[in-house]
Structures are given as structure tokens and as C-alpha cells.
Amino acid sequence: MDILAIETSCDETGLALLRASGTAAAPKFSVRESAIASQIKIHQPFGGVVPNLAKREHLKNLPILLAKLRKKAKKLDPDLITVTVGPGLEPALWTGIVFAKELAKEYKKPLVGANHLEGHLYSFLLSADLSPAMRRRLFPAIALIVSGGHTVLLEMESFTKWKRLGETRDDAAGEAYDKVARLLELPYPGGPEIERLAKKGNPHAVEFPRPMIHDKNYDFSFSGLKTAVLYYLRDHEGAIATPEGKADLAASFQAAVLDVLAAKTIRAAQAFGARSVLLSGGVASNRALRGRLKKEAAKIGCAFYAPEFEYNMDNGAMIGVAGYMAHLRKKHYSLKAQGTLDI
Ligand code: KG4
Ligand code: ZN
Question: Which residues line ligand 1 at a C-beta cut-off of 6 Å?
Fold first, then answer.
């Protein structure tokens, strides 16, 4: 079936037309068309996403992207429409939901709500051509979702059955990147900036704390790490006055984040006898994190999957996958903005 998917939970407006087939145990997807409007430049002067500005931009971008999609796809004739209902910024979510309701009326097609985190979780399916043999070696899986708003670790029994093992108790990993980037006087979003600088720096220059790394649970905490960077800067005047100093701090901060994410994910994979490790969310764009998890997963005999780079950050295609799976599972999310929707 052809699915028209809409994503407006944060600062990217995403629309996609997706072809989906197969069962919930063996789903298959191909992206026919995808259009994204990024709002990074709009929010950059504020150092983070401003909800009402995001709403205004989504309202402006949605019809433009739809026209683009209609033009590219020649004939837009979806069988199902799906839209992110949460988690995210409620004013932003509403714009997508209202727009999707109008489209469902226009096309006289069913509308299903999609969970943004499930979109991230499934996003590797947009590019992984899983053979039956690979599918047999997928579960149990440990999935790490790391974005600007979430850091969640799941134990998955199948594509549709999972248990939350842990999550962040304060800041999400992406949020920590963004906040530390601000301390280092780098532009928003901070993740790509810190990653770029970290390549040039010494990860052992400053030994920052690895919060909760030895705790027996699977929760995370990143706000103390951010504070440690803040105190370091307060106590070491001129620490970021040189490009080398800045790069060393970026590398040292990133080393601490990666150590914690990798340690907990791999420990969970061992404890639950996982056959694979799945990484997703905006922070999954980080090549150092991908490389580290891939290597450590291989050491314990686990396969490793992460989405293609274009599907790490928020996009419409991943919402198409989540919508299709919700449709197969007959999971009826209420068509209302749900800022704190869980996975
Ligand atoms: O998933 P996403 O696009 O939006 C949310 O659902 O939150 O994730 C955005 C987050 C931002 O915090 C951004 O700094 C982070 O992903 N990010 C990265 C990288 N690219 C984006 N973090 C670390 N390294 C990167 N290369
Ligand atoms: Zn996201």
C-alpha cells in the first residue's frame, strides 16, 4: 500500500510517500518520494527550538511540501495517511495533525496516528534490505534511541513487542550535545559541531565523569556531565580561547557520552542474549557513536543496524514506517497532540 506520512513534532517539517508491504514480522518499505524543510536557520539565533516559531514554519511549509510531493510523484493517491501525534512540541504536532485530517477527508482514506519514537526505532528498515536469514538473527534486539528529546533503551522480542529497560533521568543525549555546544560557543544544533571538533581533539585531555556508568540499571543521566563542562570552563579561564582547547573539550565530552551509551547498551545486549543492536535518533548521525557500537556489538557476536544518514534526523519516511506498523498492529493512537507520549 502507498502511505502518505507527515512529521511536524519538532523543527523539521517532513512529508513522504512510501510503499509498504508485508506482515508485522517481515515488513518491507521503499521510499517513493520524500520532502523535508529544515528550520535550523530560524531557531539558530535562539540556541534551541522555539515552539511557536516552529508552529508558524510548519504551517507555512506543509502546503509547499505537499505541492512538491504531488509534482514529484505525478500521481498522489495514498491508501493510508499517517501523522506524528507525539511525543514532541504540542503546538508543532497540532499543525501536522490538522493538516493530515484535511488530507484524509480530501482523499477519503483512513488516518492513523504514529509515535515519533517508533519512527526512529524502525527507521533502519528504510534502507536495510533484510534477508530472511538476517531477520532470523535480529531478535532479541537491544535498541538505543538517542535524540534531542529522548534517550531510551529497549529490549525487543519482535518488531512489535518490546520492554523499556531504561531512559534518561534528566537531559537527553542530544540535548546534552546542544547544551555543551552552547557552552563551547558553537552554533545550534550542537551535535554535528561537537562531532566535527572532536575529531581534531584529544579525548583524554579532560577526564569528565561518566554518569551512572557502573549503576546496575539501564538509566542514563547527562545533566551532571553538562555541569562538569560548565565548572571546568569556570575554573579554567581561556580553555576555549584556542581552537585546540575547544577541540580537546569537545573530544573529552564526546568520549564521556560515548562511553556511557556504549557501556549500558552492550551490557544490556549481553544480559538479554541479544542477537542485534539497533541505534536510531538524531544522535545516531554521529559516526564515532555508530563506529563504537558496531565494533563492540561485533565483539559480543551481535549484528548492528543504524539508519542511513538521511533517516537519522526527523523525517516523514520514518513516520510512514511507524504508521504502517501501527496500522498492522491495530494500534489506534488518539489523533491529538501528545507531547509526552511514551514508547
Ligand atoms: O531525532 P532528532 O532529529 O530530533 C528529535 O527527535 O529530538 O535529533 C536531534 C538531535 C539534536 O540534539 C542534535 O544535536 C543531535 O540530534 N545530533 C547529533 C548529531 N547530529 C544531530 N548529536 C551528536 N552527533 C551528531 N553528529
Ligand atoms: Zn526525532
Answer: 10, 147-149, 174-175, 177-178, 189-192, 195, 281-283, 285-286, 313-314
